[in-house]
Amino acid sequence: MTILILGISAIVAYLSETGLIIRQFYQNNTSKTPYLAWLGVLAHFLYTAVSVQHNNAFNFGFFTISSLIALVVSLLLLLTALNKPVIQLGIILFPLTGLMLALEMIFPQEAHRLLINNWQMNAHILSSVIAFGLLNIAALQAILLYIQNQQLKSHPPRRFIQKLPSLQTMELLLFQMLGTGIFFLTVSLGSGFLFIEDLFAQHLVHKTVLSILAWVIFSGLLIGRSRYGWRGKTAIQWTLIGFIALLLAYFGSKLVLELILQRQ
User: What pLDDT, in 10s, does the model give residues 177-201?
Assistant: First the structure.
């Protein structure tokens, strides 16, 4: 019962915060501290902790991992929003996080439980989740930047676009997120090569290749930004391409094996 209450509370808090952010766009209210989103993240974290304690293990099923990553992404967004104007991304992120948590609750999966008892694997998993979370936010930022760029060409732009920071600020935030995300992705790849024995035997080849491809794309984008001044449409396109590669790396095989082929 406690788990159910925590899960429902988190979902309600996420959706309520989304509604408040949307309302701010259509009123002249200044941006307020997203207390409901913080409450949602706290309840979501407690839900995960109680679930792990109840099962004496962590479930690495598709929906559970999706919910965990969504939780980390929401937390990173809230931390970033403490000193940067990015809380608008919550319009997309918070309901998506609530959806992932709801799917985890509706479709509980008992397989793929695993306890990690060494710091090397903990470091690898933590850096992987943080990297995906940051680059997820960067992808959302790129989508928002594209919409903003298109809307500013119309006269007058919609109220939603008028509430956003300038294009220059949005682009700067995008590249800051990319830079931080690439750092953690580098740590994740490095720790994987050092601490995971025989990637081929553990069926991690596709994940490794796609993760490296994403790393090359994101790194190339940062180099292009530094040396050639890449921005605008080019930055948006390559950010989304890199994120798609990373998305396939993290979820591609789990989606096919667990949900389509129903293999454990």
Answer: 899 889 999 998 888 888 776 655 5
Query: What pLDDT digit, counting tens, does each position of 108-135 carry?
Result: 765 445 545 566 777 777 788 888 888 8
Tokens, residue 37: 């989103």
* CA 218 – CA 172 distance, rounded (Å): 15
**Residue in 200, 185, 206, 202 with CA at minimum distance from that of residue 253:** 206
Length of the chain: 264
- At 139, the amino acid letter reads A
State whether residue 115 is helix, strand or coil: coil
Q: Who's near 26: CB < 8 A, 6+ residues apart?
A: 159
114 strand-pairing partners: 58
pTM over 0.90: no
Measured in whole angstroms, the distance separating CA 256 from the mean position of its chain's CA atoms is 21
CA distance 195 to 127: 13
Q: Give the SS3 label for residue 30.
A: coil
**3-state secondary structure at position 114:** strand
